[in-house]
Design brief:
Blueprint lengths: L3 E5 L3 E2 L4 E8 L4 E11 L10 E5 L7 E2 L10 E5 L10 E9 L7 E6 L3 E5 L4 E6 L2 E8 L6 E8 L4 E8 L11 E6 L9 E4 L2 E2 L5 E2 L4 E9 L5 H8 L2 H5 L4 E6 L8 E4 L7 E4 L3 E4 L20 E4 L13 E4 L7 E9 L7 E7 L11 E5 L1 H7 L8 H8 L7 H8 L19 E3 L25 H13 L5 E4 H7 L1 H4 L4 E3 L6 E2 L1 H12 L3 E4 L7 E2 L1 E3 L2 E6 L36 H5 L1 E12 L1 E3 L20 E2 L10 E8 L10 E5 L8 E2 L22 E6 L5 E4 L5 H5 L7 H13 L16
Parallel strand pairs: 2-27, 28-30, 28-31, 31-33, 32-34, 33-44
Antiparallel strand pairs: 1-3, 3-25, 4-5, 4-6, 4-26, 7-16, 7-22, 8-13, 8-19, 9-10, 9-16, 10-11, 11-12, 13-14, 14-15, 17-18, 19-20, 19-24, 20-21, 21-22, 23-24, 26-27, 29-36, 35-36, 37-40, 37-42, 38-39, 38-41, 41-43, 43-44
Helix pairs in contact: 7-9
The chain binds fe (ii) ion (FE2).
């Protein structure tokens, strides 16, 4: 397993800036750290071999390795600001829809130490106050909305717990269940309110609720259930109600961590561990699908006991990146107890200085959004299902075992929470154990074990092998700085699988190629999903897999718009920015067994492409070899398609003409299922090697295949795939403008 894991406070840092390392022991007693530049992370014995370069920088010798845990679970925390002490008669209420009832006691709303409503081990609503515990008779139903309330009357000395199942009937004639107990008056000792959790003995939130909560409120009076129900349904009336002490409208300040109290007391709170906001509430019946237009219908938050934002570990040490250190991919290497084999690598990008260019004209775009999307991917949780999908046995790496035994580290956006709902959020404020050199994935295709980061180091290794100087910029930098950052360069080179992009990133890249920039898209399934960042929560990313795409979950009906930005989630193809428009090709299929060669197409003989094939002797196929599945075309493949935005003058130079039946059509193409939707039969299942010029003098070269870089690295970068890529880079790095072909010339 992993005796030590760690993370840095940033994934991108400039020379002269500091980086802080947070390390947690999972068995290690001590560790020492050094700084390394990563050149080639793949340990495949058939490949060019692992390579890094130590940077002479003292990171402070041996340190004790301190045990640090994970504390998942989201909730709302509202500081009481001394305003709860005078509470006598009261009603505590919420609308809730549990999504997981599994024998754990959970809290719905709590004034810790004074009063609480929750769900017990037998799926019954309970309430606690004044030393009494009231339990409803009927079990509640997961997926149903319920109104729960707890009232206390000083005059009657009665505690009343009321529960109504709001999905039982369409009429107003609900029959709520009441449980009544005698109780002595007590002084409210609580000075905070927790929603979806309570305060544990160790001071941390605990008893997390899985499900939605809508319109929690606190009144200074006993509220009859029918009155309460009417008030909760109308925020305007509720906010002016005389006995209201606090009521939280979760649809206010939706894009932030703030939780707004609509009462005059302004008892505002904050979310903890980033639960899902902009979720359909109790009142939603499909009246509107965009939360921005009817926020009142989206006043629910979906909480999960498995949500994670910031693990908030104590820093171990901070160091400054030397001013003269060249831009690149680096890692702080932690060696636990002198065991180099068990080293943990905290990978980050050393970007160029913020204010001045380095003079390098080539930049590698380090796909931090895609790394975040895949971060801590526990695909191995379902090994048999994975093996069926891949057509082969898979091997679990030690980092997979760590993820399976430490789910509290937080999930990737490829997974579901324990209640089956999709994981919308992923964060870099936690260790990302699969973002390391040497780790083995099983997505990489037969004979291969690299994916994302390590597959991308095949490209870094190639740049090193051909002696090309380059800068490394990240998705995060591109999102923040836009075209200004790109305009320093002639050529931008992508990774093997740049799948996730914000609007800013796509717009910057499109602006770059439109204005004469050159884009080398050396991957597959790129520019596919919409993601967004949150200005109030650095380091977290949202992804909602709306409508189509190859996806492990749907966001749920009516929940297709991002909470962070209000953008419509899903595929860029459905949001006016199809990948075909930017790079000539777009996602068409995936399969994780074997890869194929490309066959040259007539367009390979076009004079416009002559520079691409210089020194390449073959007249038939290219890339019938490789470290990823044994061929240059495969794993995830893209096709040129004019109907999806491929420019009419684009040249499809080569195509893989046939894949195995593990490769299937994407849902967005599979409108009417027919028996010919798999690799051996469907003509659209192919990778198209594509080139085109842009009107501004720029050009785009796209491989449309994740496996391409694995073939570049074959035979120590001495092969025609590496040669073609080098030819393209040489011409693309020449500022001489490309010219658009005559209008009469057709690409394909
Ligand atoms: Fe992917």
């Amino acid at each position: 397993m992993l005796p030590i894991v760690a993370y840095t406070d940033k994934l991108t840092v400039a020379p002269g800036e500091s980086l802080t390392v947070m390390a947690g022991s999972f068995g290690a007693r001590e560790y020492r750290a050094d700084l390394r530049r990563i050149i080639q992370g793949d340990t495949n014995p058939d490949g060019p071999g692992y390579r890094d370069e130590v940077v002479q920088l003292d990171l402070g010798g041996v340190r004790p390795a301190v045990r640090k845990g994970f504390h998942p679970g989201s909730c709302v925390i509202v500081p009481g600001r001394g305003m709860l002490a005078g509470l006598k008669d009261f009603t505590l209420a919420a609308v809730m829809q549990p999504t997981l009832l599994d024998g754990r006691e959970r809290s719905v709303i709590a004034l810790p130490g004074f009063a609480r409503i929750g769900i017990d081990e037998n799926d019954r609503v309970f309430a606690e106050a004044m030393g009494q515990r009231l339990v409803a008779r009927s079990r509640i139903v997961a997926g149903h909305w319920h109104i729960v309330s707890l009232s206390f009357s000083t005059k009657e000395q009665h505690l009343i717990l009321t529960v109504s199942n709001e999905d039982d009937a369409a009429s107003e004639d609900l029959l709520p269940e009441n449980v009544v107990a005698h109780a002595e008056v007590a002084v409210c000792s609580a000075d905070e309110i927790l929603i979806a959790a309570t305060r544990g003995d160790d001071g941390r939130p605990t008893g997390f609720f899985d499900g939605k909560i809508d319109r929690p409120a606190l009144f200074e009076a006993v509220m009859p259930h029918d009155v309460l129900r009417r008030l909760l349904a109308d925020f305007t009336r509720l906010s002016r109600m005389r006995h209201l002490r606090a009521a939280w409208d979760f649809s206010r300040s939706m894009t932030t961590q703030t939780i707004c109290d609509i009462s005059p007391f302004q008892l505002h709170g904050k979310i903890h561990n980033a639960p899902a906001r902009a979720m359909t509430g109790w009142i939603w019946r499909g009246q509107e699908l965009d939360w921005k237009k009817r926020p009142d219908l989206y006043s629910a938050i979906h909480f999960h006991s498995t949500d994670v934002y910031d693990v908030a570990w104590e820093p171990d040490f901070t160091f400054v990146l030397p001013q003269d250190l060249k831009s690149g991919v680096y890692a702080v290497r932690l060696v636990p107890d002198g065991d180099e084999e068990a080293s943990y690598y905290c990978v980050f990008a050393l970007r160029p200085p913020r204010e001045r260019p380095t003079g390098n004209t080539v930049a590698f775009l380090f796909p931090t959004c895609s790394y975040l999307a895949y971060a801590n991917h526990r695909l191995g949780m379902d090994v048999p299902g994975t093996e069926i999908g891949m057509g082969r046995a898979v091997e679990l790496d030690r980092h997979h075992m760590f993820l399976q035994t430490n789910p509290g580290i937080g999930f990737s956006v490829y997974e579901t929470h324990d209640d089956g709902s999709g994981v919308f959020h992923t964060s870099r404020l936690r260790p990302i154990v699969d973002l390391q050199p040497k780790v083995k994935s099983f997505l990489g295709g037969f004979g291969s074990n690299v994916w994302q980061f390590n597959a991308d180091t095949h490209i870094l290794g190639w740049l090193d092998a051909i002696g090309q100087e380059y800068d490394v910029i990240t998705d995060e930098d591109l999102h923040a700085e836009g075209l200004q950052l790109l305009s320093r360069y002639n050529v931008i080179i992508t990774g093997t699988h740049p799948e996730y992009h914000t609007h800013n990133m796509i717009a910057a890249l499109q602006g770059f190629t439109d204005r004469g920039g050159r884009l080398m898209y050396l991957g597959g399934n790129g520019f596919y999903w919409v993601v967004s960042f949150n200005e109030d929560m650095p380091g977290i990313m949202e992804c909602r897999r709306s409508e189509a795409g190859i996806r492990p979950w749907e966001p749920g009906h009516g929940q297709f718009y991002h909470a962070f930005t209000g953008e419509y989630g899903g595929l860029w193809r459905r949001n006016g920015r199809p990948p075909n428009h930017l790079c000539g090709v777009g996602m068409t299929s995936q399969g994780f067994d074997i890869c194929e060669p490309y066959y040259l197409m007539p367009a390979a003989n076009n004079d416009r492409a002559a520079f691409i094939f210089e020194g390449v002797s073959t007249s038939d196929k290219i890339g019938d070899f490789g470290l990823a599945g044994g061929g240059a075309a495969g794993l995830e493949v893209d096709r040129a398609d004019a109907s999806q935005g491929t420019p009419a003058h684009a040249l499809v130079l080569a195509s893989s003409t046939r894949h195995t039946d593990i490769y299937l059509m994407t849902p967005e193409d599979l409108l009417d299922p027919t028996p010919d939707w798999s690799g051996t039969q469907a003509e659209i299942i192919r990778a198209d090697l594509t080139f085109f010029e842009t009107p501004g003098g720029g050009a785009v070269f796209s491989t449309g295949s994740i496996a391409w870089a694995g073939s570049m690295a074959w035979n120590r970068y001495d092969n025609e795939i590496a040669q073609i890529t080098s030819n393209v880079l040489r011409r693309f790095n020449d500022p001489q403008a490309f010219t658009m072909p005559e209008a009469s010339e057709k690409g394909r």
